[in-house]
């Protein structure tokens, strides 16, 4: 006779009665519990997601950078760049300054550069190009030279480039004369060595970005409809890595590294890490992420804040990293290249820009020459393309970064929350809690009591909802079409208002079109919201692999609003909500005109899909939420 | 008595030597010429002639071969030739790109990057040509310490139009076959030079061969060694060992000037002559319309050439050319050949691309050129997309397809032979779409991410085939005379194929099988188990 | 909406798209066309054939000799004709689908006709491949045609269509048995009321004989066209030995890319035989509604065949519209839909990351094919469940149906 407790347990584990029935009951209990806790789960997921985003700059999350590819061996060589080369660079600089002073045409400059390259014994040539965009055309001339290394079969090549315009202020007209003269002097210097395993290609591209775009597309034989460029008469091997030199100031104190490519593509992190080591140990120049000087007072807190906060090192570190992250997100989310190197990324070339942060000293041609030489030697060591999956990272500081695992979840969690929310909506749309007639008349408290009603199925207006969504995306296409017309670009005041007002009004028609829906069918807003959330969550989670920053931004913007978009009984409230959501969806058309123009230009010149994405994917998704708020909730 | 015996033996061996020397002769030559862009091209050529000999006939492969006693003729090579009954053989191992535009035509036509081996062999007998070809590959691989063994069926073709025999073939070409293979990723280095020197009668101890100093040779901008065996109807079997290099005196010199001397270039001088050499000559091409001095005074000298007979001039010999009043040297970029060719593989995607060639006719007369691609199956052509353009205008009529053998994975490479017509002073654009295959993970090399080297394309320019024009135009004559049958090799290409993850096999097997098993299991669950309706509501108790 | 109006409208819209330059971008997409169905390879084969080179001596061309002879003699294949051809084949497929629906409902026309046609013509899985001019759209058309003819009891025509289909793609041989059974049974819906197969099973033997005759005839014609038997190994052999490891949305390619050489033959056999396992059980279980069995087998094919393209699952999903009676009994439609949504977005993205942008590696794309496999599997399992569950019908309050 076993003790009672055992019997109890056995009874609990294996109660008598139909096994299946019990299993089903258990399952139903479980599902019931989950269903009850679902709203809180969603809240928790959202909260964690948002907090994670905010905590990305915390030093705790980051880890020290390291070199993954053993072949690189950064900084293991003696550099030979010496003062003669510096002197030569100075002479080139004088010549270039003369060209600048008698503002020579790009043709003259390119010819000068080509002849200088030829005199150095390289095969050099120039390339004319012209882009045709909705706001006028851009023309220029590139100069480039190839050095086929001794004994090398010339199947691989490295690129050393400098653009005529510096990246200061995203190409605001500052000339990159010192960068160009560095490249020229390097051409003289580097050809004197027989140790190169890869060919060297020297490119001085005209303009800021467009010149390199013309050169690199022609080099890979890709034709761009709105680009007319001379085909390159000189060819070389496959380009694996490239360095772009940007040296606008008189001299520099730090070397900043810019690495974001077009459409959020990042170079292999090994390149940045090895450059960081070389710059510090070979050249004695500390590296910066972007041009963010780390010695300046970072948190501009007012004086009345207590000392403990103002010079709290943890806080400062957080602020420093946050600054880098924000800058990174600003580039990557817009799919914008943070320098000329970014254009090479579209052809699987790992490239970075060395930006000599202007200062009164102490470094100049001597330092940058040695660093570039040593970096090229490192790149020269490569036996294979940089391939270790080192492309997904978040560089928060010169020597610290975040692995994908420690930043991706932030966006994914939010998207998961939205997915749950969507599924919840799906169930709500399919099932309705019908009260028995008896309770229907009684007061509130009774309603709350469970068991007095029952779940009853109702039809889901899936087709209608899908049609509405399709319509919104169609509207997005129309918007994109309008934004890329020339009249929009030219009359700056009227067009945005016109478009935005159109966007505000057009969806209202859905109200009129909406037919009176049968009672046994779920209300359209519920259905629409559920599908909208599912779609958005999918888009975010998939986008986060391609371009994390964009995914994060969208998750940040849409997470809460879409989850808690709901219709209400009072119509003026509905209108207000609708207006708010439409602003979120299309506000940028009216408010961010400059951004719009830049995005459109990037789309036309460089094929950055940020603009079409915002128009055709993001805005419609939010617009759907707006409609959810607008449409009357109950058919009754 | 004793002494007489000694003397007898002595005379005997001397006699044999004499007999041997009658039937063989060894000539060595060094040809030095300055190149338009300040470089210096040096070509060593050591030829040994086996008088009156004929290549072995394949039918006799079964029977015992006559014994081979050579004094000068390289025995190791000779045995291989006899063993596999090779009539004509050409092996070249090169490093670097021969830049035709700047350097013009090379003295030795075979300048394709990497290893190239082609041989003419007679048919018939018990052993097939292919098996002998395999044997030849491996034997040469052993002899020259090069990985010629991997010139297997996947790289072997028979492009008879481009690679005609340089010597003559005994009793008619009818029953002779060509085998040709290239290995662009092979790199020539010291371990190839040492066995090469061993084949010379004087090794690198004396004569011109003593200049072959590995430290300098393998620092040259371009260098390559070649072995050429051919049969000359009148003379006999000739083995010619050649070494060709392009030096950069400007890079070597401290003062960055073009002057050069043997000691500067090779870091050696000729101390003594090679006793067995019948002739050993150094020919120096003199710079045209420039001020220069050449020391020491050559044996004979004309406008274009200064010649040194090594036996005659004083030792140690150190030839040098000095340009006293040259300060800065302006490089010349005019193309040096009749046509200049660029070949690129466009597009950065790993599953498709475009092969693009630009062929420029630098003459003001119409030329034609043979075009040969021997492409391993690592790159597969879409022949229907082969199009020709001249400044944007489609001109498909200029391309005449001779023959095409499509590739078979793991079996044979593609062979494409065509004839292109080049109007005077124009550039012809030739484009063709290509697809890149996907390899199983076992087929990738250790450095899979580097990609695969693709062999060079070969061009053979020749003038248009209308006799009247040829006879009338003297300039055309001139062109014809030196254009004919000079092969031009394009640079090699690198194709990067998509790689699988090499650490995944087990995971993939597990995951795929799991998915399949899941679906299979659930399907059969649904199909076999029976349906029941159960009452779920709480029992009234 | 009236079918007479909407159908031509849809087809016209498709034609406009097919004539747009869009096709050039889609043509060589690995998701839309496999090495066995790619348009470029077809062109290459025709070119070689016209220049007197045996296209089957190489490895690029793996299409059926029938297509070769068709395009090299009867119809010249160029941009315009291609656009019309592929649109026509889709139109034919959609029309057959509608006819099948009508036959199943036993009506001459119904209100759902346009919807069904639309679901085929606007299904991205089916119309993207046909924009990419992959011959898999021909396969779909032939498949639906033979099913339609079978529903209308035109035995020989339907068998001929099937023989053509098998000339194009060997795995479709799976459809033979259910098709024969369909010929001697009713296409109308009996899912709700199962019964044992009434008609005499022996009646299929003459039909099978007829089919064999057609196959022999077509193979003979094929051999005649290319003068030797190379085509057998190059076309049919390909789907058994997987010589070309080009990525596709299926499960085979990466498995055999990563496979150890000495296990390769074994797993090839396993994978090929595995396909056959399903035929009999499905035919037995759904003997009361053979059309449904055909539908399920197409689902199996779309998951497990050697060189699938998106149009195979597309056909399966479009055919779902034939069986509205099962919809209420689907277990988890939303989950399946979301899986498909994810897969449909992931496949092209990861393909791009791996092969063009170079930041992702092969595992990314492999993972997305697994997701796609799961999505198709979920759809298949759900339709099997619904097809069986419907027989029990609505249960009353407090009751549930399950299997044990």
TrEMBL record, chain A:
Task: Please provide the record's keywords in A-Z order.
Answer: Membrane, Transmembrane, Transmembrane helix
Residues of the signal sequence?
Answer: none
Q: Which InterPro entries match?
A: Gaa1
Q: Which Gene3D superfamilies match?
A: Zn peptidases (3.40.630.10)
Which residue ranges does UniProt annotate as crossing the membrane? 30-53, 386-404, 462-483, 495-515, 535-563, 575-594, 606-631
Q: What is this protein called?
A: Gaa1-domain-containing protein
From TrEMBL, chain B:
What is the superkingdom listed in this entry's lineage? Eukaryota
Coiled-coil annotated spans: none
Q: Where are the transmembrane segments?
A: 506-527
Q: Which residues form the signal peptide?
A: 1-20
- Keywords in alphabetical order: Membrane, Signal, Transmembrane, Transmembrane helix
InterPro entries in the record, alphabetically?
PIG-T (IPR007245)
| Protein name according to UniProt | Gpi16 subunit GPI transamidase component
TrEMBL record, chain C:
Q: Name where it's found.
A: Endoplasmic reticulum membrane
Q: Specify the signal sequence span.
A: 1-18
**Keyword hit for Kinase:** no
Q: Does this entry carry the keyword Signal? A: yes
Pfam entry (one) = PIG-U
What is the name attached to this protein's record?
PIG-U-domain-containing protein
Membrane-crossing residue ranges in chain numbering: 159-184, 211-232, 263-283, 290-310, 330-352, 364-388
- Alphabetically list the UniProt keywords: Endoplasmic reticulum, GPI-anchor biosynthesis, Membrane, Signal, Transmembrane, Transmembrane helix
Q: In which pathway does it act?
A: Glycolipid biosynthesis; glycosylphosphatidylinositol-anchor biosynthesis
